[in-house]
Design brief:
CATH topology of the largest domain in chain A: Rossmann fold
Oligomer: homodimer
Strand order of the largest sheet of chain A: 2-1-3-4-5-11
Number of strands of chain A: 12
Structural class of chain A: alpha/beta
CATH superfamily of the largest domain in chain A: Response regulator
Largest interface: A-B, 37 and 37 residues
CATH architecture of the largest domain in chain A: 3-Layer(aba) Sandwich
Radius of gyration of chain A: 24 Å
Helix content of chain A: 40-55%
Order of helices and strands of chain A: HHHEHEHEHEEHEHEHEHEHEHEE
Largest sheet of chain A: 6 strands, parallel
Shape of chain A: elongated
CATH class of the largest domain in chain A: Alpha Beta
DNA sequence: CTGAAAGCGCTTACAG
DNA sequence: CTGAAAGCGCTTACAG
C-alpha cells in the first residue's frame, strides 16, 4: 500500500476498493498514524484554519461573538476548522494582522470583527482568492453580519422619551477614533435624529466622547453629572460605558433611575447582572451566522456580498 | 539570486554578504513577497503556532487568563507566535483537542488551561518532543503556573470567621465532575480545615454542589437559604457562582451582608462591579507567565517541571 | 483500482 | 559567500 493509497483512504476517495480500504484503515488504527496537517495544507494549497481578527478580544461583546464563531466552526466540515486568533489591542496591529493573515495559505478564510477594512486590502484578499466575512462592520464588497446601529440609537431615544425625559445625554466613543470604529457614532446619529423628531435637541453640552471602557465611562459621566443643569437620562453607546456611568452615579450619590436614567447597548451578561436597561443585539448568534457565511464562502465559493442585518430590541430593566 | 539566498536573507543568515542582502531585500520589498509559513513549517519541522486548550473560553476567568497569554505571545520571537485556540465545551472534546493538537508539527507547543492531563498524554507529548505547560492545573511532570487553592479556601474561612460567622456554607463544583476540575474541591478542603481549626464543622447540610455557572449558583443558594436554620455566610468556589448567590438573595429579599455574607473566588471584573468580596488570583499575570514558560520551553528547550505558585489575596468589598 | 512520480514552497547540508 | 539539489509529508494527474 503506497502513500497514494493511504492518502486516498484518508480522504475518502471512491477510487479505493473496500478490501484495501479496510487494510489501510487497520494499519492506520494499529499504528496510531495521524496525517500531517501542514503537509496537507502545503500540497492542497489551502489551509484548514480560519483566521479571526478581533479587537480587544477580552471585551464582553467580542468574547460573546467569538463564542458563537467557535461553536459553529468546530461543527463544520469533517475535520472542522482550526481557529487562528489575532487580537488587535493597538491601532497599528490591525494592518499587521491583516497582512500576516493574508499570507498565502495561512488560512482558508478570514473573519474580521468590528474592524474596518480598506479597499486595497479587499483587493489583496480577492487577488489571493481568500474569502473574508465581516462581523459588526460593513463594507459593500464583502458578506457581513451587522445590526442597524442608527436604528438602535433611535430605539434608545424612543424609550427614554416614553419615560418622559427631555434632558438627555449621550456618552460614546470619539466620532473619529484610531481604530475606525463607527458603531458609537451611528448610534448617536439615530439617537439625535429621534430626539430631534420629538422636538428635542441633543445639546453639545450633553455629549461626551472617550475610549470605550468602563473607567472612561465613569469619568465622562461625572463631568456630565457635575454640570449646573445635569441630564435626567444618559444613553451610553455600550454596556461597558453604561456600567461606568452607573459607577459614577453610585459614587456621587445620584440615584438610578430616580435622579437619572441610564441605558446601555449590547446586552452583555453584565447588563443583566446590574439590571441595566439596554438595546440588545444578538451577539452570540451573529458570531454563528458569520461563521456560516465564511464556511459557505470557503467550501462552496459563495462570495455574494450579502448583508445580514440582525434585530435589535429594547430590554428594559431597573435603570430606566 | 537563488531561492536559497532569498531564504538566507529572510532568515537573517550571517552567510549573506551585504550587497546581495540589499539586492534581495529590495526585490522582496518591490514585489511585496511574503514567505509561505506553511512551507516553512513543513521544511523546518516546527510550527510557529502555539495551541491553547481552554474550557469554556468565554468564561470570565478563562478570558482573563487568555488575555495574558495573547499579550505575551504576540511579543515573543521576531515573528511572534500564532495562537491556535481550542475551546472545550464538552468533556469528550478534551481528548479530541489534545489528540488534534499533538499532531506532529501542528503547533510548536501546547498551553493547557484548567484541564487535567493524563500520564499517557504526557508520554505522547514527550515522545513527539512537544513542549507543554499547564495553567491552573497541576501535574508533577510539566511546568505549570497555579495557585494554592487549599490555602485560598483557608483565607476565605479566616475572613468569614473574623467577621464573626459560625454558621457557614460552601457552594462549589461537584467534587468529581466530568471535566476533572479540582480547584473547587481544593478550596473546599482548605475552607473546611480552617473552620475545623476554629472548632466549627462544615456540615453536609451546608454544602451544595453543582455546575460552575451562575444559574446553578442561584439554585443552590436558594436551597441553602430555604433551610430552617440558614447559614449566615456563604463561600462560593468562584465569582460566577457567588453572583448567582447574590441573585438568589435579591430574589428572596435576603440582605447582603446583613442577613448573609457572601464571598467568591477569582476576582473577575464582575466582582468589582457588584462589590463582591472575593479571593483574588492574578488571572492575567498567570497567563503571561505561562506563555513565558512555554516560549522558554520552545525556544530554549527549558523543560524543567517548575511550579510557579501565584499569590492569593482577600479583597474585601461590600458583601461581607 | 493502485502505484510511481512530480509538485506544493520552503530550508540547509554540500560543493564550489 | 552562493547555488543546485534533496527533503519535509502530503495530493493527484498519469500510466498501467
Amino acid at each position: 500500500m503506497s502513500a497514494a493509497t493511504v492518502s486516498r483512504v484518508l480522504n475518502d476517495s471512491p477510487l479505493v476498493v473496500e478490501p484495501t480500504r479496510a487494510r489501510v484503515q487497520a494499519a492506520v488504527d494499529e499504528l496510531g498514524y495521524r496525517m500531517n496537517a501542514t503537509a496537507r495544507t502545503l500540497s492542497l494549497g489551502r489551509s484548514t484554519a480560519v483566521g479571526v481578527l478581533v479587537p480587544f478580544f477580552t471585551t464582553h461583546s467580542a468574547v460573546e461573538r467569538l463564542r458563537g464563531v467557535v461553536a459553529r466552526l468546530a461543527r463544520h466540515g469533517q475535520r472542522g476548522y482550526d481557529l487562528l486568533l489575532f487580537d488587535v489591542e493597538a491601532p497599528e496591529q490591525r494592518a499587521d494582522a491583516m497582512r500576516d493573515l493574508a499570507d498565502r495559505n495561512r488560512v482558508a478564510g478570514l473573519l474580521i470583527v468590528s474592524l474596518p477594512i480598506y479597499d486595497h486590502e479587499i483587493d489583496a484578499l480577492q487577488r489571493d482568492d481568500l474569502p473574508a466575512v465581516l462581523l459588526d462592520v460593513t463594507h459593500p464588497r464583502l458578506p457581513r453580519v451587522v445590526v442597524d446601529n442608527v436604528h438602535g440609537g433611535e430605539l434608545a431615544a424612543e424609550h427614554l422619551l416614553a419615560k418622559g425625559h427631555s434632558r438627555i445625554a449621550f456618552l460614546g466613543d470619539h466620532p473619529t477614533n484610531e481604530y475606525g470604529f463607527t458603531s458609537s457614532e451611528d448610534r448617536r446619529r439615530g439617537f439625535g435624529a429621534a430626539l430631534e423628531r420629538a422636538g428635542i435637541r441633543l445639546e453639545p453640552a450633553l455629549e461626551r466622547f472617550g475610549h470605550p471602557d468602563r473607567d472612561e465611562g465613569e469619568t465622562l459621566a461625572r463631568s456630565l453629572l457635575a454640570q449646573p443643569s445635569p441630564p435626567t437620562a444618559i444613553f451610553a453607546a455600550s454596556d461597558v460605558q453604561a456600567i461606568g456611568v452607573l459607577k459614577a452615579c453610585e459614587a456621587l450619590g445620584v440615584r438610578v433611575p430616580e435622579d437619572v436614567a441610564v441605558m446601555g447597548f449590547d446586552d452583555v451578561d453584565l447588563a443583566e447582572i446590574v439590571g441595566l436597561t439596554t438595546i440588545r443585539q444578538p451577539l452570540r448568534e451573529s458570531g454563528g451566522l458569520a461563521a456560516d457565511l465564511l464556511v459557505a464562502a470557503i467550501e462552496h465559493g459563495v462570495h455574494d456580498p450579502v448583508e445580514e442585518v440582525q434585530a435589535l430590541t429594547v430590554v428594559e430593566r431597573r435603570t430606566t
